[in-house]
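[agent] plan:
  1. take the single chain provided in the ticket
  2. run structure prediction with default settings
  3. attach structure tokens to the ticket
  4. add a short note for the reviewer (M.T.)
[agent] executing step 1
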Amino acid sequence: MATINDVCRVAGVSKATVSRVINGTGQVRASTREKVEAVMKELNYRPSIVAQALANKSANSIGLVISDFTGGYFGSLLKQASVSADKLGKQLFFADGHNNAEDELKAVHSLVEKRCDIIILYSRMLSCEQVVALSKSIDVPLLNVGRLLPESAGYSISFDQKHAIQIAAKHLVELGHKNLTYIGPKPTTPTSRMRLAGFLEYVEQNEQQGLVSQICESNFGFEEGYQATKKWLETNHFGSAIVAAADDIAVGCIKALKEHGILVPEHVSIVSIDNDACSPFIDPPLTTVDVPIRKVADKAMVVAQQILGGEPQPESEVICGQLIERSSARSLWK
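[agent] step 2 finished; step 3 output follows
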């Protein structure tokens, strides 16, 4: 691997000159700059990120804080953020918020200390007021992913959680189902609150058409959906259709139903949210609402680059999901 000394030798210049070319500092004649750049390209020389950070007081990096690293949802977000950062020529630093507000704050400040140029925050636990205060307290721009926040909190790009759950419920109603069971977590995070609120709102709007509902509590996760379903079946039944708050809950639910001799969709239909990578491969393939998390992550990275380039902060955005029809829901009209 080529070193800065190799560049100096081939280009016939000092290390100080090469450093000025790399960091864009000091005076270097155009012809010399072009010669050094050509040699770096010829030798496939890559400057040290650490050295550049020390010279420019910047790590040429984007920070990403996620409240939880588990599950396909956040895995997709991380993967897309990494791909997008690489395309932008930025290093990606990330930190785990451990699903509590104090650690989310610590994670952000740790990335500030690493001299990140901008920080993207996916917070589950911080209140709106806390994010606004955080944005004002740090000296780097803050971008918010996952929920819509006021402009004072920085740019935000979010997914319409209410709309997604209502797409799922509406699809089941259009198939003739009037007795829906929502299976999902207690409303303790922005996502869980909005998904449950969207379901309850849809039911209330359609009560006059005979729509009835019930709530089965289950945390996010395959095992959680499985255990919650088993417990529910000890004393209750699901009606003709289930709206699951997430694909992993739905997968666990389907397994528990099968063990009780309840077939999907022959006996009960299920529609879920997220379009997890596993959803087409379970039996039956899961009808779900696509959450375009990769699109959201990529757009956040593009906006980060725009802001770093001196462009004004754009208006915040809300992205809606689309229903992906597979085989886990059937019509009662036939």
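[agent] step 4 note for reviewer: The longest helix spans residues 71-87.
[agent] ticket updated
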